[in-house]
Structure formats: C-alpha cells, structure tokens
UniProtKB/TrEMBL annotation:
Oxidoreductase among keywords: yes
Protein name as catalogued: Dibenzothiophene desulfurization enzyme C
Gene designation: soxC_1
Membership in a protein family: Belongs to the HpaH/HsaA monooxygenase family.
One GO term (biological process): fatty acid beta-oxidation using acyl-CoA dehydrogenase
Chain ranges of the Acyl-CoA dehydrogenase/oxidase N-terminal domain: 33-107
Keywords: Oxidoreductase
Domain Acyl-CoA dehydrogenase C-terminal: 250-386
The UniProt record lists the keyword Protease: no
Classification via Gene3D superfamilies: Acyl-CoA dehydrogenase/oxidase, N-terminal domain (1.10.540.10), Butyryl-CoA Dehydrogenase, subunit A, domain 2 (2.40.110.10), Butyryl-CoA Dehydrogenase, subunit A, domain 3 (1.20.140.10)
GO MF assignments: acyl-CoA dehydrogenase activity; flavin adenine dinucleotide binding; oxidoreductase activity, acting on paired donors, with incorporation or reduction of molecular oxygen, reduced flavin or flavoprotein as one donor, and incorporation of one atom of oxygen
GO terms under cellular component: cytoplasm
Species of provenance: Acinetobacter stercoris
C-alpha cells in the first residue's frame, strides 16, 4: 500500500486489506493438492471439474476476498493471485473457470463503497459462485449487443440472447451477463440466477487447450431477472480489464511451475541416454540441466511480474476508497499499463519454456499417455485471449504519445465485412 500509507481508511473493516498468508496457504494448499491429483486424467478425458470446484466452494476459497466482517478472509489481491497461481499449478483450467466469479466479487467489493453489498457477500460466503457471459459470436457487429433486457407490462424483467465463451457458467449459481437494457437504453450487467427457467448451458468449447473451463454456449430464453440484480455497466469497477488480464498471468505462471516440476521429474527418473550425451545419467547431463535451469528462471520471472501486477491492482482497489478522482485515475492507469506489459512478457516466457523443455527429453516426451504437450497447449490458449500485438501497440502508443490506454474494448464483426 505504498501510495496509501499515509491515508487513514476509516472503514477498514469494510475493506479487504489482507490476511495472514501463511494461514491462507495452510488452509487452501491441501485442497489444491487434492485437485492436482486428478488433473492429468481430466485433461486426457475432458472431464469437467465439478467436484473440484465444489471442494473450493466448500473450503471457503471462493469467498477469500470478501471482508472478514461479512464472513470472508479479507485477502488482498497479491494474496489472492499468489493462491491462484498455486491453484493453476494444480489445474490451470479451474483458475480460468473461476475468473468471472472473482471479477464479479471484485465489482461488488468496489460497489460496497456506495451501497451495502451484504446480499452478494452472503451468497459468496455460502459458497455460491458466478460465471461469465459477455461475448457474442456470429454476425453481431462490433459495438452491438444482441442480448436484450426487457420489461413486461406487469413490471417484470426478462432477458433473451445467446453468448459464447461463457467461462465457468456451467459450474455456477449465478451468471455475470452483459446485455442491453431496452427500457433505459443503456448497457448493463445482469446477475442471472443460473437455475431460472430458460437458462441453457452447453459444454461445446472446442479449443485445443484449456478444455475443461466450461467456456461454451449460454442460451437465455425469456429468463426472469430481479430488478435489484440489474447493474448499469458504467458503474463497473474501473480496473476490470487489468484484473481479467492478471488472471491470465497467474494461470500462465502456474502452468510454467507445473511444467518445470513435471519435466524435472521426467529427467530425474529417465534411464535411457544417448551415446553422444554428456553423462551416464540424464539427470547429470549438463546440457539437460541447462534446459531445466533456464525454464526455472523464466518461471521465477513470470511469478515476479504476476505479483508486481497484483500489487498495482491492490493500489487501484484502495484508490476507489481514497475520495480522490485524481488518485483513482492514476492508480487505474498504472494497473492497466502494468498488466499489459506483464501480458507481453509473461506470455512469451511461458510459451518459450513450455516448448523448449522438450529439449530435456527425447521422442518419448511426445507420448500421449504423458500429455506433456498440455502445458504448451494450455499456455497458448490462455495467451490468445487478448492479442499480444495490440497490447504491444497500446504500450508503445503510451510511451511515445502518452495516448490513453483502452480500459474497455470489444470484439465483433466488422461493419465492412459481408454478413450474408
């Protein structure tokens, strides 16, 4: 809290300022270890981790950011992302599946400054989680929103539409839905009860990586929603894009840690050698050790960057309560810039190490039974969500021209493209 060390937050009990990290690790790391035991089987058989996510809900992990006053742990963002990195090491799919949940929690933590969010905090502490449904596919033009919120003559609200990349919604109790309010003519976030009539969720994500994140299609057919769960989009927490990106950084770092650990174990136990190698055992071959050593160093750098970005996000969170628009804008800009810089560096580090670790082994590393390719496939998929080339461009535009960073951006069909 370097920027805010001289601020007296009178409502500290309402904030998530941090917990004892050793106690958090002691509580949650054993759960992560249980989750890791079945990760390879789930990867190979494309088994969705319903039981594993339920373990996290039952343990209280999904409410770890909720302030202690309301039954959570009050963890800081650096603590959350340290835990998420360890969870990603166990199973990177699960971290991505919970991305929408923790973003909605973060939004409610920010909203709590101006109005009580006890309703949502109680649901989070009870183990209920939130899925994500923002993206529309097909011929929807960029800037348009086909998912619509309407109100009937009796004053009841209903939503209709279809989303893709609805990550985590298949596991969730609620859905963080982006829609357009036809009554008030504004973009909104709708908290949709996942169990309402008319909600259909398909497990039809066809990516070659991150296969078990539940990132398929969501269909909404005249689904009833409560007015108090309709939130104007312009009130969304300002550092949301940086927050979403930090999830990818933690996921990539966890993938890297798992890859180094797994390849190290393969090298340690390998009995076959090459006649032109450098040692009687592969585990003593200097060139092989060099491969592992470089990957370990790259992983260390990835973790350091991830934690640096997490610290900037905590500053952005606290700035919302500092009663200064100038301080808040500065903190949000810093977190957006650092997350973009982090994406460029961490993505390249992890993609490089998950490829070059194969130099420590031989053709047996291609065995489907071992699925060592999963580390690269998962990292490649995570790194593709936000195009690296555009991140590099906006960073450069800031450095050269001090151009504003795009805090919110969209994807959709080009107006110049044929839609027929």
């Amino acid at each position: 809290m370097t920027v805010f060390k001289n601020f007296d937050f009178s409502n500290q009990e309402e904030l998530s300022l941090g917990a004892d990290i050793d106690l958090l690790k002691a509580k949650y790391f054993p759960v992560f270890e249980q989750i890791a035991q079945g990760a390879l089987s789930r990867e190979q058989n494309r088994e969705l981790p319903f039981d594993e996510i339920n373990k996290l809900k039952d343990s209280g992990f999904t409410a770890v950011r909720v302030p202690v006053k309301y039954g959570g742990e009050g963890a800081s963002l650096p603590q959350l992302f340290e835990l998420l990195t360890e969870l990603a090491k166990a199973d990177s799919n699960i971290v991505q599946a919970l991305r929408g949940h923790f973003a909605f929690v973060e939004d409610r933590l920010n909203a709590h400054r101006d109005s009580s969010q006890k309703f949502w905090f109680d649901h989070f502490v009870a183990g209920e989680i939130v899925g994500n449904a923002w993206t529309e596919v097909g011929n929807v033009k960029i800037g348009d929103v086909a998912t619509r919120l309407t109100r009937n003559i009796e004053g009841r609200w209903f939503v209709n539409g279809e989303k893709y990349y609805s990550t985590g919604s298949i596991f969730a109790d609620w859905i963080d839905l982006y829609a357009f309010d036809d009554v008030n003519q504004q973009a909104v976030i709708v908290g949709v009860n996942r169990h309402e009539n008319g909600v259909t969720i398909l497990d039809d994500w066809d990516g070659f990586g991150q296969k078990t994140t539940g990132s398929g299609t969501l269909k909404l057919d005249n689904v009833h929603v409560h007015e108090q769960n309709i939130i104007p989009f312009d009130t969304r927490f300002k550092y949301q894009t940086a927050f979403y990106q930090e999830f990818h950084l933690a996921t990539l770092t966890g993938i890297a840690q798992a890859a180094v650990a797994t390849f190290s174990e393969e090298v340690r136990n390998r009995k076959r050698i090459f006649s032109h190698g450098n040692a009687d055992l592969v585990r003593h071959d200097a060139q092989v050790l060099q491969v592992i050593g470089k990957a370990s160093a790259q992983t260390y750098a990835s973790e350091a960057v991830t934690q640096k970005v997490a610290a900037s996000l905590q500053e952005a969170y606290l700035s919302h309560f500092a009663n200064s628009d100038v301080i808040e804008q500065k903190a949000n800009h810093a977190s957006e810039l650092e997350s973009a810089q982090g994406q460029v560096v961490v993505s390249e580090l992890v993609l490089d190490l998950t490829t070059k670790l194969f130099n420590a082994l031989s053709a047996s590393a291609a065995s489907s039974a071992k699925s060592l390719d999963r580390f690269w496939r998962n990292a490649r998929t995570v790194s593709s969500h936000n195009p690296l080339i555009y991140k590099e461009k906006v960073i450069g535009d800031w450095e050269v021209n001090q151009a504003d960073l795009p805090f919110v951006w969209q994807i959709g069909a080009s107006p110049q493209a044929k839609t027929a």
